[in-house]
Each structure stands twice: as structure tokens, then as C-alpha cells.
Amino acid sequence: MLLAAQQVLSAPNTHRWRVAHPQWRDNPFALGVASGQPRADSVVLWTRLMAQPGGDGGPLPAALLPLQWQVAHDPRFARIVRSGTVLADPAQGHSVRVQVQHLTPGRPYWYRFLSGGVASPVGRTRTAPADGAPVDRLRLALASCQHYEQGWFTAHREIAAQELDAVVFVGDYIYDSSNLRFRLRSHEADSPCTLDEFRARHATYKADPDLQACHAAHPWILAWDDHEVRNDYAGQLSDEEDLSPAAFVQVRAAAYQAYFEHQPLAPLHWQSGQVRMHDHFRWGRLADLWMLDGRQYRSQQPCNPGQTARGRVRWRCDTLDDSTRTVLGAEQERWLHDGLRSGSGRWKLIGQATQISPWGVPTPDGARLVYSDGWDGYPAARARLLSHLHQHGLENVVFLGGDVHRHVAANVRANVFDPQAPVVASEFVTSSLTTAGIPDPLMSWIRRSNPDILHARSDERGYMLLDVTDRSIHCTARATGFPVLAHSALHTQARFRVEAGRAGPQRE
Question: Checking DSSP bridges between strand 33-36 and strand 80-88, what pairing results, if any?
Fold first, then answer.
């Protein structure tokens, strides 16, 4: 694991590799460009050099390849404000991430890369407003769960055309698995295990033109979930009974490295062989956004046999209420609790992978059926977080989630099982971009059994638009039918708003 960390985060080793200056016969920027992690004075730029698939230029040389990067005030690059050279390292798949600093807060920029006389596509990004600056508006797209095989990324085409400040992506950027029943187009056949296999899976996704357009149009703020590695993995445990924790850690290390090689993420520090993925973003006085890592530090799902991880429907599980079990890990929990207390933004947005409001269903004897991989499977961890919100009187908290393949608007109570407990937060969960949802009869049962779920539909795919102002947040659920085809059009499924000082979504 540490070796993978060093490969991802270290500077290119010029003593290990020679420097080459290729003359390209194929497009070296076949995977496009991207930006992310917008701060008041910086953004991260990304690209990866690739030989054009099917071309005659051959593989990339095992050498350091220089790239120029430019950031400008205009799309024609008449006013270049920052520029430099970076070396694409073969140890990092010839990917590069450039943290461009000393930018002006709260304004758009255009950027590109150049190599061997070839220019990349032009990307557009934006810096966050200065800390403490008055801000009229923040506009976000919330997205998750883009299974390449189960549909086209039509929603990304629409998101790319929106006027946004950022895309908030809350997990399942790639899928490790296939489902023959829903396959419309194919990625690589098997679940990836090695670094080269994970690189190939990411490259397949990145080659999609609509995903490329969405990355080029807006900066992205990212969290990961399970399918970037293995379905329902928990910490160092996988769902494969024949894969030991030690062997799985090697698979996870390859997956993590490939993930960082393909995302606009600044080099993050490692602690005890683990990567710091959780992060905090500010948008002037208007909003704080915490992005959480719900996989790397997670306890095993309750009542699983041996050392295996997988979500299951549980009923009367003895370890369900074990107070030591966690989704975020103790350190990340403390970091979030401290940040929520000290955050100065009007709104406190919490981006994480799944649905925090309960969605279990009752049984005739009064027990509840719950899905153990969600927050319902970690009730003590959820109670700690919601109790913290209530005890400290924290207002204007909005959870942003994905994973469950349905659009959701919900109240979040201090005690989620007490209908008389105060509502302490609001929740919006985006449907999947392409991945199939649960059947309608089950969705209806979930809604009837959980009155704090104000809206939930799993029959359509899509994303959410969030307009944040000082007085309110307006959420628009955009959707289309399943499967998503190349020509599919999206419509507005529902609209909700949250008023400042009043927790809970209201239908518009």
C-alpha cells in the first residue's frame, strides 16, 4: 500500500527515467482534460497522455514526457496568467495533476495542455470566492453512479451545458463489475485486480465524449464509494470470500492509484498507509462543503460471516447497534464534528456517498428490515453525527448523497426513529446517472414505511441541480427513463427548497 502511495504522490524521478520529446502521430489527449478542487486562489488541472486507441502510433515510451500547461483569462489564450511545464511520469500512467496557485478568487479561467506541438481540448474552470466574501449564489450539480455498461452519459451532456460553479460527484465513478441483464455497451470483461487493469477501466470511462465535456466545462469536487474498488468493500475487507484482507489491500492499492491518476485531485498526504480523501471547501460566506470518505475507515457490515464485506438485508442482527462500529472512522468523525462547529458559511453542506435518512421497512413482529451497507447498518455512527448537530444547535445542514439509485428528498431528525424528534437537517440524494434502480413495489413500501422521506423515485436516472442563496436552497431533480440512451432527454421530476433557519425540504 505504501509503495502505491509513493507512486501516486511523489514527484517524477528524473534519475529513474529518461526524458523524451515525442512527435505525436495520434492524439495524445484522447482522455480529455479536467479541473477540480476549486479554492479561492487555486485549482487542480488534470490530463493523461494516451496513444489514440486503434491508431498506428504505438504505445507511449517508458520515459518522462514534458507537457506545457497554460491558464488564461479568455478561451483564446490571449491573456495567459499562469503557465509552466510538468513531466508526465510513466510510473503514474503518464497522467499529470497541476495545482495552479495565486489565482484571483471567484472568477472563471480557461486552461489547456500542449505536447509535441499538439494542444489539448480547452477546459473551463472557476475559483471559489475569497474566504469571508459576500456571495449571492452557488450553483452545483450533484451526481453519482455512472455504470458505463448500463447506459449512455447523456446527463453529463446536459450538465456540461449548465451554468455551474462545480460538479459534486459522490461516488461510483467507475464500476468494477458487470451485469449482463442491463448491458448496452461493454467495458473490459473481468473485475480489475491489477494497476494496469484499473487504468484500462478508467480510460474506457474517460474516453466517453459526454463525460469529457462535463469535465472540461466545470471543476469537479469528488468523493468515492465502493465500485471504484469492489462492491460494498469495508476498510480492508472485500466481498470475495477467497480474497484475504492482505490480498485485498493490494487490489485496493492498485484501485486507489488508478483513481488518483485519473482525477483532478491534488497530492494528498498518507497516514499509516491510507490516503486522506475527505476534504473541506468554502464558498465565501455562503457555504461550507465537507466531502466524506465512507469506505476506507468503515467497520465490517453487521452480522457478516468471517472477514467478508457485503451489504445484506438484515433483521434482528445482534451487532447492528454496536456503538464501536463506524462509517467514517474516529479521526474523520472528529474532523467533521469540529469543522461543523467552526464552519462560518451560512449553509453547511455534507457530501457523502449514500442516504443518511432511514429507509428500512417494518416486519409483522415490529422489527425492521434494513440494508446493512447503508447508514441503516451503522445506526450508532449515524446517531453520533445527528446528536452532534442537535446538541450544538447547528442550523442549515444539508446532506448530499448518492449510491441508492433514486432521487430522494427527506427530513433528517435528531433521532431518526422518533417522529416527534426535531428535524435537524435536510437531505437530497441523487439518482444514478445510468445504473438500474430498485423495483417500484419495493420503492413504494419504503416510502410508506418512512414518512420523513418526502420524495423517492427509483425508476428514473439523472442528477440534481442545487441553487444556493443566502435565504434558501432550491433543488431540481432532473431525470430520464431507464435505460439511458444516447438520444434520451431529461425532464424535471421534482422541485424542493430548504429555507434558511428551517430544517427540512419543502415541495415547490
Answer: unpaired
